[in-house]
Write the structure tokens for this entry.
Amino acid sequence: MGLDPGHVTDVPGLSRTAQLKALGNGVLPRQAAHALHLLLTTAPNSHLTAAA
């Protein structure tokens, strides 16, 4: 996911459930950015342009 080793697992007192929730929620921004990138770069005859 691009995080340093132990970013979530080395947090004292954070339960396994809380770790999984934090990791699950953290992936959404990367997925959205990837989806937008694909849409903006592969859409044929698209009037959309990527922000500079």
In short: The longest helix spans residues 28-42.
